[in-house]
Design brief:
Layout lengths: L1 H11 L3 E2 H8 L3 H14 L3 E4 L5 E4 L12 H15 L7 H14 L2 H12 L1 E3 L10 H12 L2 E8 L5 E13 L4 E7 L4 E6 L3 E10 L8 H12 L3 E7 L3 H7 L5 E6 L4 E7 L1 H9 L5 E5 L1 H17 L2
Parallel strand pairs: 4-6
Antiparallel strand pairs: 1-3, 2-3, 5-6, 5-9, 6-7, 7-8, 10-12, 10-13, 11-12
């Protein structure tokens, strides 16, 4: 324990006078020198200087020693490693999984529950990098999802309205920019998605519940991000199969509605100019089915491109 405390002190300052460091540890300077020797044997590069102004500092390089992490840091590292180990072509998946396995072996039981909750109820939408979030809030939401336990919180919607919500939480979903909670809103008797950065005062009620339905959480979030938040939802037919359409249109841009093998209908949200520019940039044939204002915007864009390149 004294070695851990010594390491924490060395990490807190760029340099320590030997007498001051020994005083903080309540040991003699001779004992301090022995403890520094032990840290070096563990792989921590501790630099020392002698003389009246002699002291110690934690150096750089050396082989990777055991890490000192507080509770939030341990959970954060485990969650980040889980995201990388899940794939995505980063080339770090195997190393991340190995590190995650080692970390899981040394986590205290109470932290392992928090990490397990986040790991088992989290879904990613085509993104390996985790967006920033309040880790303490994420843990509260994840634990409630896993138990499962009803949850209360205050929610600020996109129009600036604040409401109190009582929900049955299901999954946490993250995109490249945001975390979302997918939950059954008991007050509105419907499934809802909530941006985590707009949730405050989240508390578990201690009331368990049984799930009678498990929706596709990723699809709910994708539809909300791609469509619900935008003034226009256009229906576009792509002359490719559903698999190819999914490669052209990401889940947070559009939602696949139907496919007959030769063509696929997708719904895309945005304003008229943005949708027109987006579909015009696709590398496949397309046809805007509705609304008329988006069809008009595509024709206007096409005419302008013809003029500019004639």
């Amino acid at each position: 324990m004294r070695l851990l405390r010594l390491l924490t002190l060395l990490s807190a300052r760029p340099w320590w006078h030997g007498a001051d460091l020994a005083g903080r540890l309540e040991v003699t300077e001779r004992t301090l020198r022995r403890d520094v020797t032990r840290l070096r044997a563990l792989g921590y590069p501790v630099d020392a200087s002698t003389g009246p102004y002699g002291g110690y500092r934690l150096g750089a390089a050396g082989h990777l020693p055991p890490l000192l992490l507080d509770d939030d840091e341990g959970v954060a590292v485990a969650v980040a490693l889980r995201a990388v180990s899940g794939g995505g072509g980063s080339g770090l998946e195997t190393a991340a999984l190995s590190a995650l396995t080692k970390l899981d072996q040394v986590l205290p039981i109470q932290l392992r529950e928090r990490v397990t909750a986040l790991r088992t109820v989290t879904v990613g939408l085509r993104s390996v990098e985790l967006p920033p979030a309040d880790l303490e809030l994420l843990v509260v939401l994840a634990v409630a999802c896993r138990r499962p336990e009803r949850l209360r919180f205050t929610y600020l919607d996109g129009q600036g309205n604040t409401t109190d919500r009582h929900v049955e939480p299901f999954r946490l979903v993250y995109t490249a920019r945001q975390w979302y909670l997918v939950a059954y809103d008991t007050g509105r008797t419907a499934w809802r998605t909530f941006r985590v950065d707009r949730i405050s005062d989240a508390k578990g009620t201690g009331v368990p519940f049984e799930r009678t339905e498990e929706p596709d959480a990723a699809a709910l979030v994708a539809r909300g991000v791609a469509l619900a938040a935008h003034p226009i939802q256009a229906r576009v037919r792509l002359y490719v199969d559903a698999e190819e359409a999914a490669r052209h249109v990401g889940p947070t841009v559009g939602v696949i509605e139907a496919s007959d093998g030769a063509s696929t209908t997708v719904a895309i949200g945005g304003d008229r100019e943005w949708i027109a520019s987006y579909v015009a940039g696709l590398s496949c044939r397309f046809e805007v089915l509705e609304p008329a204002e988006v069809r008009a915007a595509v024709r206007e864009l096409g005419a302008r491109l013809m003029r500019d390149n004639s």
